[in-house]
Every structure is written in C-alpha cells, then in structure tokens.
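Input sequence (328 aa), recorded before submission:
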Amino acid sequence: MTALYDVAAIGNAIVDVLASAEDSFLESEQLTKGSMRLIDEARAQELYARMGAGVEASGGSAANTIAGVASFGGRALFVGKVATDGLGEVFTHDIRAIGVNFESAPLAGGPATARCLINVTPDGERTMCTFLGAAVELTPADVLPEAIAQAEILYLEGYLFDPPAARAAFTKAAAAARTANRTIAFSLSDAFVVERHRAELLAFIDTEVDVLFANEAEATALFQTDFAQALGHLRGRVKIAAVTRGAQGSVILAGDGEQQIACEPAAQLVDTTGAGDQYAAGFLTGLAAGRSLADCGRLGSIAAAEVVSHFGPRPQVRLKDLAAARGL
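Predicted structure, token format:
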C-alpha cells in the first residue's frame, strides 16, 4: 500500500515560552541548568511571571520534529492532545499552517493546554520547566489505526512514555504500523525519562522499535555505562540507532556498520532547544525517501545546525532549500 504520509508522529502538544536568562536567575529559581523538570500549573504561573520577555511558539518534541519534516517537504501527520482554550487554538493553528495534518479532538473540561517554560542562558543551553496539562490526557481512542497505517514511518516521543494511557496509545499505534509493515521510530527524549522507566523502555525497544534516536547522555543512562559500551549494547538491538553528540556530530549504527556524521557548522549558537528534534526530522525525511544512512545523518545535521542559530525549536527557513544548497 502506498503511504499517504512520510511520517506520523505521536507526542506532547505543548506551547513553548522561551526567554533569555542569566545563570543567576536559574540559581535563584533553584533550576538545574540544562535539565527538564515537570511542574504543576501553579508553579508554571509563578515561574512565567518571573521570567524575562519571551517568545511563545507551538512546541513539543515530536511536534517540532514533524514541523521539520514538513519544512523538508515531507508529508506529515501529528497526533497529540490540546485543551479547548486559547493556547490549544494557537497550537492547532500553527501546526496546520505549516502543512501538517492534525485532527486530534481537543480535551474539554480537563486541564489546560500544556506549556514549556524555557530559560536560555548566554551559552545557548536551555533549562526547561514543563506543565504537561492536557498533553498527557492522550488515550488509545485518539489513535486511529487506519491513519497510522498510511504513514511510511511512525515516530514516538519518549516524553509521552510516562502516562499509562499514553503508553497504551503507543502500543496501539505500533501494532497498526507493524500490521501495515511500516517502520517504527522512537526517541528517548531525555535522560530523566530513561532513569524513570529504564526497564519498561528496554522492553518496548526490544519488541516494537526499528529506529532509535538518543543523545549521548540518554544512551549511557539507558545502559548505565560509558559511551563506547552503550554503543555496543545498542548494536543489533534495533535495526538503526542514531546517537547525537552535540558538536561531535552523530553516530549511526546499522547491523555491523557504524558511520560517523560530522556536525554541520551553525551560523551562530543561540539556543539548543529543538536540536535533537530537528536532527530526527532530517533523518526521518531521508529514511522515508529511501536515502542512504549517511545522507539521513547529514540531513539531520543540517536541520540541527539551522535550529540552534536562533531562538525557538522549529526551523525559520525552508529546510528543503538548505538541503538542496548542500547537494542533498
């Protein structure tokens, strides 16, 4: 069956609020630099009031990736949960405006639409505090097997692995993809996710995942070892593993093979928010098109370099044009 979509993604539907901050602000708010912390709605309102002037934009890890896929010219579907409120309307408008199919029914009468408060220090590092709100109310009922089956690749966000209902939605989506002989990709998302659910994640990866995305910290946390040994554990566990290492580029494992992909030079380092998400966007776009793994890695690096050069987790120029300018 010919696929209607290149990538279908399931993840948290979040509105990001990004602001510049000094290290002293992080210290005064008792925030660990570079971390992602879950907060309740009251803390979200309190921290928002203390942050500097910010930029609000639709976000969420898998949603950022699917926005990147669309920027590469890919056909994209997103499944996620927002509330019937102002931020929910913002998220829905934004993701549809970039050409992504988003038809998930909004949540009525429950928690507000999720938001992530991101403080970016002068070195480009981001510190995130997230109120998940309606995003974690995703259930198996929100997954339509016939839609998932029409995507070449199903992409699942590790951040949404925590709620039992959302995890059940992942399982339902994976079954639909597997039945249709599609590829299933998964992102570990954050080391804290790994530390909370290591055993469950390994079980899910072993039974459901074809393509795994991780950064160095997540890979070492998954196996509680150093980087070289983590790569050894990943080899053969999935068909493809793509592990990013910041300025050191990325490593792609497939079978007995290993490819080192250089980091694409960025015009400037402003904000690392979304770098991993956009790497996945380029990689998945290339994979859906049948490109070589080396080309997939290069597309990912191009997208990551673009997004770190400005505030915000989504591309500000057309990634398809950037790739073409570099012969891809």
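Checked by second reader. The domain at 5-14+61-110+137-325 is CATH 3.40.1190.20 (UDP-N-acetylmuramoyl-L-alanine:D-glutamate ligase).
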